[in-house]
Amino acid sequence: MLKSLKDLFDSLLPPAPGADPASEDHALQLATAVMLVEVMRADPAFHDAERAKVLAALREKFGLAADEAARLAELAEATARQATDLFAFTDRINRHFDMARKLRMVELMWEVAYADGTLDAHERHVMWRIADLLHVPQAALQHARIRARDGGGSDG
């Protein structure tokens, strides 16, 4: 348990010069997974459809097998529960994702929010807050929302 917590905190630190690129990739995957999980956690009522959408998004975004996506989602949930803010995660994403990749991630986050068929006010607030930290313009945030909603969610 202590080793996994140390690994978690180490993954949030900036990589040392000459660090293993795989460890940076894992930290970026974790940061992205935490953003998806934050949207799921924003809904006061837990829905299996949201968890399934998080897993599907992780498989799509990173080409993970189902068991790898499940492990990453579990780690992201534990990380999100312990996090005091989102800056460490969004900063890592901002350093490695161009705007197109951030917009796709935001769209996946909207899909998580819409997975249960409704868009809760807490989910909407979390989306706005994360998009602001990712420097995603409001118009792009709304276009991503519409694409996610029209792709399988309900109106919100």
Automatic annotation (TrEMBL):
InterPro entries: DjlA_N (IPR007791), TerB-like (IPR029024). Residues 29-145 form the Co-chaperone DjlA N-terminal domain. Transmembrane segments: none annotated. SUPFAM superfamilies: TerB-like. Signal peptide: none annotated. It comes from the Bacteria. CDD domains: terB_like_2. It holds the Pfam family TerB. This is TerB family tellurite resistance protein.
